[in-house]
């Protein structure tokens, strides 16, 4: 049995530019991954199948064509595998759960099927599955531009403590972009090196998530999540992706853990997790 982690993706900032001729928007984002996420296992089998478990499995039960299965078929139209997806991350929540799952499926099935896919071909397969799938292949800090097709590794030598909080609402990415009016545009400074949590927060103060305003208009509870994170001592609180998951960056693990406990007590219906920025996929 093979195992692949599918860590949550966090957009530390996300700036939008003009809408392209292909309908996508030009984006610019500093992306990191966390120590929590979904998990996938792979076993040899004659036919391709997908089993779901975990706290958010029910949200995927009625999906006609899960991204994991689409990733498998994109690699090989006829090969078989028994795949189990443990869904620990909330669905449609702005932290790339589906994209991370698809990327993990590509990594795991290449091992299971002993496929040597050239990097450019793998990148094209990933991009065909979704704009965030390419950056999830490495699941390491990255500077992402275009619609997600241009990726550059970033030296981010800090495993900052974070709290992720989702109020239990799903937000449509398409609806958020349809309501996007205020765009920062391109041209943010790609950080050379960031060595401390303080440096990271100082850098991020000059950035924002352009999708936050339209997402808050669609789901006002996002404002409550950001307020709760700020009140709990976050050095910086912001929404990730198109929402509704928000993150807070804290001085240390103890502060993040205490904040997660406090927020969970006052908002027992929210999904709240303390974690850290991960430098790369665990071996």
Number of helices: 9
How far the N terminus sits from the C terminus, by CA atoms, comes to 16 Å
Oligomeric grouping of the chains = single chain
Q: N-to-C SSE series?
A: EEEHEHHHEEEEHEHHHEEHE
Percent of residues in β-strands: 25-35%
Uncertain stretches of 5 or more adjacent residues: none
SSE class: alpha+beta
Sheet with the most strands?
A: 10 strands, mixed
Task: State the domain count.
Answer: 2
Mean pLDDT: 95
> Which CATH architecture of the largest domain would you pick?
2-Layer Sandwich
- The CATH class of the largest domain turns out to be Alpha Beta
Shape: globular
Helix content: 25-40%
CATH topology of the largest domain: the name is Ribosomal Protein S5, domain 2
How many beta strands in the DSSP annotation?
Answer: 12
Radius of gyration, in Å, reads 18 Å
Descriptive key words:
283 residues; alpha+beta; Ribosomal Protein S5, domain 2; Alpha-Beta Plaits; 2 domains; 10-stranded mixed β-sheet; two-stranded parallel sheet; globular
How would you portray this structure in words?
This protein is an alpha+beta fold and 283 residues long. It has 2 domains: 2-153, Ribosomal Protein S5, domain 2; 155-278, GHMP kinase, C-terminal domain (Alpha-Beta Plaits), CATH 3.30.70.890. Helices cover 31% and strands 30% of the residues. It has helices at residues 67-75, 97-112, 119-129, 133-138, 173-178, 197-204, 212-218, 221-231, 253-266, and strands at 2-19, 25-43, 48-53, 81-86, 142-146, 150-153, 155-156, 161-166, 193-194, 236-239, 246-250, 271-278. The strands form 2 sheets. Strands 1, 2, 3, 4, 5, 6, 8, 10, 11 and 12 form a 10-stranded mixed sheet that branches. It has a two-stranded parallel sheet with strand order 7-9. The longest helix has 16 residues, at 97-112. The radius of gyration is 18 Å and the shape is globular. The model has no long low-confidence stretch (mean pLDDT 95).
